[in-house]
Structure formats: structure tokens, C-alpha cells
Amino acid sequence: MSLSAAQPRSPMFAAFAAERSGAVLAGVLLAIVAVAAVFAPLIAPQDPFDLASFDILDAELPPVWQEGGDPRFVLGTDAQGRDLFSAILYGARISLLVGILAVMIQGAIGIPLGLVAGYFGGRVDSIVTRLADIQLSLSTLMMAIIVMALFRAGLGGAALSHFAVPLLVLVIGLAEWPIFARTARAATLVEASKDYICAARAVGSGDRAIVQRHILPNIHSPLIVIATTQVAGAIMAEAALSFLGLGMPVTKPSLGTLIRSGYDLMFAGAWWVTVLPGLVLIGVLIAVNVLGDALRDWLDPRRRAG
Amino acid sequence: MTAFASGAAFIARRLAQAILVMLAILVIAFAVRQSLGDPLREIMGQSVPETERAALRHELGLDAPWPVQLARYLGRAATGDLGTSIIYKKPTVEVVLAKFPASFELVLGASLIVLLLSLPGGVYCAVRPQSVGARLVLGLSVLGISVPVFLTGIILITVFSVWLGWLPAFGRGQTVDLGFWQTGLLTRDGLEHLLLPALTLSSIMLPLFIRLVRGAMLDELGHDYVRTARAKGASPLRVWIYHALRNALLPLVAVGGLQAGTLIAYTLLTETVFQWPGMGFLFLEAVTRADIPVITTYLVLVGLLFVVVNTLVDLISLALDPRVSLEGAQ
């Protein structure tokens, strides 16, 4: 009899375990990519940003496991003779850097605004909420494309390449602060009505101290979840801009730039220049999204039940 | 009566808002033209002596103070004149609008795919949440969200064009000229060319809409009226489709409108992958060749499209749900 009671649970448990193992796998994959990206200068056999370190005579060599592969270039080379393994390491480094810095800007703008809006309410709240609505209705990717396109048309591709990283970080960072503001505001509204905030006020804590020391530490979990999915979004936005030729230049390729530069060669048979960075990009994005979903389930008990 | 009056006020306010936004977009476009574009280059090229340039500049009123120029720009914009393309030597509105049918048909194809798949998919995931099929659909939707749209396109081209050779990879194929509209929908070749780009574009919107339909359906299924309908003896299918889905569609219209800007961005990416001769493809070409008048015209026309879609969505929401007017008018 006890068996029949346990039976409906077991498939749920299996699904839960599968979900967890997926999250663990995603975490391990991300850790590997992150370590490889951080230590890229030590791991990579060649500096892909240094034009003197590679030779056009080595161009379009296939990966070693294919016929014609060269043991010096494990994953083959691109159209300029760049070692693809090194280029992917450095490209992932740029993609992760732009993604994380952009999300830090989003948070730095959005979280204080959300806290203030949620805590004080009233006019401040309605202004922040309205601004967030307007900003969100403009669509991040479209705004980013337009701004980068105008910079490109105005400065020219060569000049733009010097400012590509800070510009991408700013454009992607400024566009999505409302996501953080909304999350922080909603969580602050819940926290601010709790008894311990009343108690803090009763012992004479100021608004500033309450928001910084009591509310902020208590709303960190939804913010962490949002930050994770936002990193995936920022990495994807950077890749999309670079693929359009509006992001990282060919001389300092990110994963998106590599995919674009290889796209022309794909029909000539050199599939690896597009496919290998593409696989890395998809792997990183899936891993970040899976991790974000798992974090959400883990940090939010209400969702776990449902 | 009052409901009607508040509805009319809402419509009037919404239209005024739309006009204001369009004015703002035109001012931005004017600022971009002033700072990036040299109108003289549009007309006479760069190898003309400075004295002649100055004379023409005066003749065209380009030495006038900028508020005067802005007023002239807005006046010309009102008559549909946004400048002349440097590359094509034709009115920019004509150049950009000539590409509109291609973009529109791409979005139409993708929207049809999204609609045909997301409604049954979302309803299924909501009414059978624990089934293997629902888990599979939701799992695939995580995959769909994670794969950037340009990589989806590249993967589809690799499989269906390069490996299998079933479908063409580039361009629009054979089109039929209807006088005002170049359509690819009337020939087999045109439809074959449309299939992969439309699938690619739909792949990025589909996961979102399946999740939206599912979420909205789950909300509706929890309401009392669903229980009442069931108690009345309505068949499950009737309860799902006729009662719950109808109400679930309402928030979908609003969210669908919010996605208009994103859809334009994804269309631009899809057009780049498939070299689809639409407005986005033209825009990127204009960017690389610094054709500022075409760039600003694209911005104005896309802004117009965006404003029209958002206004329409608000008005449709009003028509579908009278409660919106009361909230919006206050």
C-alpha cells in the first residue's frame, strides 16, 4: 500500500533530479568556459588580436580531425590564418566581458531606482514606472542596432573599432535597466510592509539605513535570478550586433564576429569558422538559461511547489 | 454614455500621444542628419569648389539657423519628402518603401507560423501540464530562446540548403509585380524562398508566445467561470477554446504589440542571414555606405510603423475589453 502512495512521487522526483543534474552540468560547462576565457592569454597558442602572430598562408585550414588539418591548429584557421581555438577563447572572453559589464550597468541603474520607487512610492514611483515602461517599449535590440549603426555611419568602421567594447557595454547596459528596476521595486514593496522594517523604524533607523541594510540584503534572490537571465540576453545582443557588423571588429573578433566572418566561407566548404564559435555561443547561452531557471526554482519556494 | 465618452477621450489621447512620438522621432532624425549628413554631398558630390558649395548652401537655405531648417524639414516630412538617397539618387521614401513588401511578407509568414503553432501548443501545455508532450514543448522552447536567431538561420540553411538541397538559401526568388507591390507569395519559387526565413524568424517568437498562451490559459482555467462552464456540462474542448482561450487572448494582444520593436530587430537579423532584400537589409547597406538620408528615413518609417502598431494594439484592447478604457481614461 505504501508503494502506491510513493508511486505518483517517483516520476516527479526523477524530473527534479534530472533538472538538478542539468543545472550542475550547466554550471560546470560555464565554469570551464569562464576559466578558459579568463586565462585565455595563458592557454591560447597564439594572440588572435595581434596581426603579426598569424600568417595568411595558413588560412582556412580545417580542424585536425579532418583531412588536411594541421596539428598546430587544433580547430583549424579562419580566412586570415587566425588559429580558431585561440580566437574562440579570446572571443568568449569578449562576449562574457561585455555581457557581465552590461548587466552590472543595468543593475547599477535599475536596482537603486527600483528600491527608491518601491520604498517611497507616490510620485517617485509613478515617474520611475513610467520611464521603465517607455524604455522597455523601445526594444533593446532595436535601440542597440540603431545607436551602433549611427556611430558606425558617423565615425566609420575603423574609428568605431577602438570604442567597440565600452560602447557595446553602455548601449546594452543602458537599454535594460527597467528589468532590474521592476524586480527590485516589486520585491521592495513586499519587504517594506513586513514587521521587521516597522521595528527598524521604531528604533530610529533612517530611510537610507533601512533600504541599504535591511531591504537590499533581503531582496537579493530575485535580483540574482534576473541577473543570470540578463547576462544571457546581453551576450546574445552583443553577438547579434557583431553578426550585423555593428559590434566587435574583425581585428578583435567576439564570438558573433567570428560567426559572421565564417559565414561567407561556409558555402565554400569551410564550415568550422562559423559552426565552432556558434556551438560555443549556443552552449554558453543554454547553460546560462538553464542555470537561471534552476536558480529561480531553488530561490523561490512558491515556484518549486507548482 | 459616460463609457462611450471616456472611450472617445481615450482614443483622442492615444492619437495625440502617437503624433507627439512621431514628432519626437522626426526631431531625432533631423538631429542625426544635421550632425552626420552633408546635404550638399547628396546633390553635388565632393569634388566641387568651395565657392560654388557656399552659393548652393545659401540657395538651399542650409545656412539658415537650425530652428528654421527643422521647421522646413518637418514641413517637407508632412508632404512625404524625407530627402534624397546618396547611393540611389532617388527620394529616400521611395527607396525604403520599395523594400517594404519583402519585409512585410517575411513577417507575415513568420506570424502565421507562430499563430498556427503557439495557440495549440500553449493550450496543450496548459491543459496537460504534466504530460511528456508539454515537457518536450517547454524544453524545446528553452532551446529556442537560447539559440540566437542568426544561428537558427545558419543551421536551417546548412541542413536544408547545403546538405539536403531541398530549399533555396538566399533572396526572394521569383516575384510577381502587382504594380504597387512586388509579391513572392504567388509563385512556387517565391514561397520556397520564403519558407526558411519565415521559419527562422518564427523560431525566436514561438517560445515566447507558447509560454504566454500557456501562462494566460493557466490563469483563466483557475477562474470560477471555467468551473461553472464545466458544471453546466460543456465539453472540455468547448471550455478550453470557447471560454478560456477567448479571455486568455486579451493580454496576448497587448504583449504582442510590445514585441513589435523586437520583431523589427529580429527581422533585420533574419534578412541579413538570408540576404532577403527587405528594409533591414537596405538599412545595413546604407550604414556601411554612410547613406545618411536613407538611414534617417528608415528610422522615421520604422518609428511610424512602431507607433501605428502600438496605437492599433491599444485600440484593439479597448474594443476587446471595455475595462481598459475606464483605467486608461482616468
Keywords:
heterodimer, A: 306 residues, mainly alpha, 14 helices, 76% helix, 0% strand, disordered N terminus, B: 330 residues, two-stranded antiparallel ribbon, 15 helices, 2 strands, 78% helix, globular, disordered C terminus
Q: What's this, in brief?
A:
Chain A is mostly helical and about 300 residues long. In chain A, about 75% of the residues lie in helices and about 0% in strands.
Order of helices and strands of chain A: HHHHHHHHHHHHHH
Number of helices of chain B: 15
What is the gyration radius of chain A calculated from CA atoms?
23 Å
Determine the mean pLDDT of chain A: 80
Find the biggest chain interface: A-B, 41 and 40 residues
| Distance between the first and last residues' Cα of chain B | 16 Å
Low-confidence stretches of chain A: 1-9
Count the E strands of chain B. Answer: 2
Count of helical segments of chain A?
14
As a percent range, the share of helical residues of chain B equals over 70%
The percentage helix of chain A is over 70%
Residue fraction in strands of chain B: under 5%
Oligomer: heterodimer
What fraction strand of chain A? under 5%
Characterize the main sheet of chain B: 2 strands, antiparallel
